[in-house]
Structures are given as C-alpha cells and as structure tokens.
Amino acid sequence: MGFLAPRSRLLIGWSMFALLLASVWFGGLWWSLLILIACGVAIQELLGLLDKTNHVRPSYLVLIVFSAALMLEGVAGKPTWFMPTLTLAVITTFIGLLLRVVQKARQGVSRIGGSMADMGATLMVLFYLAFLPAHWLLLRQLGGNEMGRVYVLFAVLVVVGSDVGAYFTGKRFGRSLLIAEISPKKTREGALGGLLLSIAVGAVLAPYCHMAYWQSIVLALLLSIVAQLGDLVESLMKRDAGVKETGHILYGHGGVLDRIDSWLFVGPVAYYGIEWLVLQQGWLWQEAIPFFQKYF
To answer: pLDDT tens-digit profile of 133-184?
Structure first.
C-alpha cells in the first residue's frame, strides 16, 4: 500500500489534467460543464470554511440564483450582462439578509450580530467563485471557436509552467520563505522560478497563438503573478479557518478549491489581457481610450 498511494495520487493528477485539456479542446458543453461543476463544488467547500470561521451564514438563495446567472451569461458570451447582474445581487443580498433578521426576530430568535459578516461573505463567494471563473467561459469564445481554444490553452500551459517552475526551483534552490505566516513551503526562489518558466512557455507559444513575443511574455508574466497570488489567497483563507485542505473529494489532492485556487484570478486577467493587449478590442479601446483622447 505504501507505493500505491503516490501512484494513485499521480494517476488522479494526470487524469484531471487530461480532462481539462479534453474539455478545452472540445469546448462548448464540455468546457461549460467542467467550469460549472468545479465551481459548484468549490462553493460548497468555501461555505464549509466560512461555517468554521465565526459561524458565518451567507445567503444560499442569493448564491444559487446569481452564481447560476453569472455562469449562464458566461456560457452565452455576454460580459455586458455582468454589471446589471452584480448590481442586483448586491441589492438583493442586503435586502434578503435584512428580511432574514426580521423573520428570526419574529420567531423569537435575536441574531443581529454577524449580519455584516453574512453580507460580506455572500458577496465574497459570489465574486470569487462565480464572477471570476465565468471569465474562463468568455475566454473560450474569444476570437471564435478555434482561437478561443488557442487562448485557453495558452493560459493553461503558462500556469502549468509557473507551477512546475515554482515547485522544482523551490525544491532545489529554495531558501527564503515567500510569506512564512501564510505558506510555510513557498519560497522566493520558487516564485522566481515559476515566473521565469512561465515567460519561457509564453515565448515558445507566441507564434502558435498569433501573438508578438512581447505580448506573450507580458501576458505570461501577469498570469504567473496572479496564479501565485491566487494560491496564497486561498492559503490565507485556510489558515483563517484552521484547516489544511478545503475538502477530500480528490484523493491525495484535497478539495476542488485546493486545485483551482491558482486559476481563479487567471481567467479574468487572460481574458482582458488578450482582448485589450492582443486583439485591441473591448472596453479599453472602444470607450476608455477614445474618452481620454477626446478630453485630454
């Protein structure tokens, strides 16, 4: 059994990576289902962490309705619908939790304390595990089916390169801890190794992604930085909850949130980075730059 556990962990790891690549390649329903299922499970895990942290009680109804709405808008390729949805979600969260307190009071249960934490937790989960990952759905559609596949593969391979570079560089040369209070294993040397390998991967992929070398290098650098920060943010939440893993659904790999933490910030940065930097489209070019050119 001693040698089966590492082999099983490795098998699960490669299986997840193969599933990711297959979903990216076929796109459509397969990619959408992967994102929806992963985020749904991750939301459950994060709610479990919040329950262990001062018994925070987010609004499940708000999370279900508006997480589904954001994901469906991502599937439909409608980023302009995000802002009205988020606006309504904020208002609904405040009013819904107000009504919940009133209902509890009428039932003889006084629980006004913690209401602000409940509101904040509701919106945090919604933004973190619905709004951010919905950009992966948009990225897969950017530039059409063929180029969307290329752009997602670019982001995936750059982040994998960042993870591999950080792991092996940190293991071989790691001496100085990056943030000891949050992660006792991550080192500055490892972080630098991740940045360098991600840049190398981006440069190699540039011709295949129809990017200039400077564009792919800048994007790879940004994606590696936000991927490593995403990992640290999730580590911070686990520290706050006093747990080492968010779940045990993936044998030897912890929970789903443990696996996707590095990717949550990457989706939006990749989407807007490619849209603005490579395609020169979207809000930056259509509204922001013309505005400043007109008035300044």
So the answer is: 999 999 999 999 999 999 999 999 999 999 999 999 999 998 888 888 888 8
Burial class (CB in 10 A: 0-12, 13-18, 19+), 51: middle
Please give the backbone phi and psi of residue 133, each rounded to the nearest 5 degrees, phi first.
-70, -20
Q: Are 208 and 150 in contact (CB under 8 A)?
A: yes
- pTM for the model stands at 0.91
For the CA atoms of 209, 211, 212, 214, what is the dihedral angle to 10 degrees?
-100
* pLDDT digits 0-9 by tens, 212-264: 999 999 999 999 999 999 999 998 988 888 888 887 776 666 789 998 999 99
Burial of 18 (0-12, 13-18, 19+ CB in 10 A): exposed
Residue 24 in contact with residue 156, Cβ under 8 Å? yes
262's CB contacts (< 8 A; 6+ apart) are 159, 162, 163, 227, 228, 230, 231
Structure tokens belonging to residue 5: 């556990």
Q: Which of 245, 252, 195 is nearest to 223 (CA)?
A: 195
Cβ(158)–Cβ(218) under 8 Å? no
Q: Are 223 and 159 in contact (CB under 8 A)?
A: yes
Q: What angle do CA 288, 289, 294 make, to 5 degrees?
A: 100
SS3 177: strand
